[in-house]
Amino acid sequence: MSTFFDSTTNRVVEGSLAVSSQVNNLRDEVGTAFDKFPPATNVKVNNVDYGIESGSVNTYAVAMPVTQTAYVTGMCVCFVPGNDNTGASTINIDSLGAKSIKRPDGTAVEAGDLLTTQTLELRYDGTNFVYTGSWPNSYFTTTSANATAAETAKTGAETAQTGAETAQTAAETAQTAAETAQTGAETAQTAAELALFNLLHYFL
Prior knowledge:
alpha/beta; about 45% helix
């Protein structure tokens, strides 16, 4: 802003003369400053962070109500994706360059995180744009699926262990039966030998 007008000590008093160039410079600077504000219509409906997405699958491009000139930490953007994502994705705001979109825990988004049925809110952390406030729907789906798979695997392991124990019991039973049969055979052999001995003793 013009140095003539940016100091509280240089107050213009009634009846003073002003240099036209300074007045015109001030007018231009005020106009430039107002151009940086969001349009009044956006302010009235509180959607100054809402942009229009026009990119492609996994590569999102958003145009903001007021064109941004640089990425700034803390910058917030809301938009509805034009396509569902199928994996890791990026966002490019006002052609400033692509930035990765991350989940709240810092991991890359996965298929189904960005849906055309959702209004997404992302905030720039200085490196990436991160979900704010909630996890994507697919996180809960994935977590639930993983929990179900883990429970199924646990049940399968327990069933296998029970089967192994049953097989071991059957093997032990079979071994006992074999030992009993062997004992019976040995007893029969002893009885046969004794009978033979008695028979021979009788004839002799």
